[in-house]
């Protein structure tokens, strides 16, 4: 007996209990509506998707070839279309997630208008987007099941029992569009209590995985910009604890925390760490500071000093009242950050790098795994990287090391179109193609994501449409490049009324009013041109 059939029988029993007043209620229609609304709360989604992530993490530990992926999305419709596409082309959503980027929330979802990625947007916009994404994913379920129910009715009407059995099996084994979201909480939007409160809202909206970074909340910068300021480990651990408490309070005991370190590109700290003994965590953090040894006589007004190994050390303090780290300490600080985060409740790591280089990432992960053997990463395949130039330079260096003649190439100008189609360019493109596979095998990357790809695709496709439509091609641009391709590629949005829920509404009207229902999908609906 399937859940669908169980629901039919349960509602039939209820109908019989309630007598003639329920004569118009169809148990099968109720079962259909329940199937189309499988997840009734965000917490149900959070638990369902946390279970998926934990399973995927365990499978990756056993086999690094089964890594996971996501694309960042900034609107529920974009997330919905991504999952519809995955199901259509790849037949399963297995190992595919969504990423919610704080950068895109700031740039596209703030009431202030477009903002830089500096935690200036409304914190409530983050859980609101999580809720919106899952609303659209649940609607994708409702739409796809509605199409199956319509096919089932048609097969029954035609008396085709083979088709009825096949369609019913598709309904019984239906795979939802609801997948895990890794959601960006930035640096926590305030103190640990503020982090806890926002994390609760995100989890209640459906988030099973929350990514938090070790920057100062009120100085937060995009990971690929300058001026990043980190916090001592104890401050960051308090926020990791805050997120864990939020998960536990809401009953998501296996919620996932992604601890991000920006230390590789962050040369500043707002605070000196508290230390009580040589070699403790605070002392290790302070040991990376750029200091000068001074005598007591050299102390100036307002100077701050650290005593270590019997010496007085004065950290270099900037006019901004920030302290700077020694140049070249970024990787060491990243490794310490990662080990410390995993030892204090984090589940996954995120190391923000300045370029996509497998061996650079692997060098840090190797060191982390000396302490935490199953350490694994979420990695940002960032649009902030010039992928073409970076990998052409890597290909150039590889060819040079192999003794190949690279005199035909200018390493600093490898982005040039004149190198397209060359041996070097093809080698670079192959490295890009296998980057995720190679990174997962060599550098412990469990999850690959692109933070803001749909920001760029929206801009590019709109530019192409506007260029032709407002130019000489006029309507041909839309018809040739959009609608004709939607039809030929089977893009569901060509029937935009159906995508927006019109047919679901028609079927509900029929459930509610029977033959008296006034339906929108009749013979005069112009959407029939696409049937």
TrEMBL record:
<dbReference type="InterPro" id="IPR015813">
    <property type="entry name" value="Pyrv/PenolPyrv_kinase-like_dom"/>
</dbReference>
<dbReference type="InterPro" id="IPR040442">
    <property type="entry name" value="Pyrv_kinase-like_dom_sf"/>
</dbReference>
<dbReference type="InterPro" id="IPR006254">
    <property type="entry name" value="Isocitrate_lyase"/>
</dbReference>
<keyword id="KW-0479">Metal-binding</keyword>
<feature type="binding site">
    <location>
        <position position="184"/>
    </location>
    <ligand>
        <name>Mg(2+)</name>
    </ligand>
</feature>
<dbReference type="GO" id="GO:0046872">
    <property type="term" value="F:metal ion binding"/>
</dbReference>
<dbReference type="Pfam" id="PF00463">
    <property type="entry name" value="ICL"/>
</dbReference>
<keyword id="KW-0460">Magnesium</keyword>
<dbReference type="GO" id="GO:0004451">
    <property type="term" value="F:isocitrate lyase activity"/>
</dbReference>
<dbReference type="InterPro" id="IPR039556">
    <property type="entry name" value="ICL/PEPM"/>
</dbReference>
<dbReference type="GO" id="GO:0019752">
    <property type="term" value="P:carboxylic acid metabolic process"/>
</dbReference>
<protein>
    <recommendedName>
        <fullName>Isocitrase</fullName>
    </recommendedName>
</protein>
<keyword id="KW-0456">Lyase</keyword>
<feature type="active site" description="Proton acceptor">
    <location>
        <position position="222"/>
    </location>
</feature>
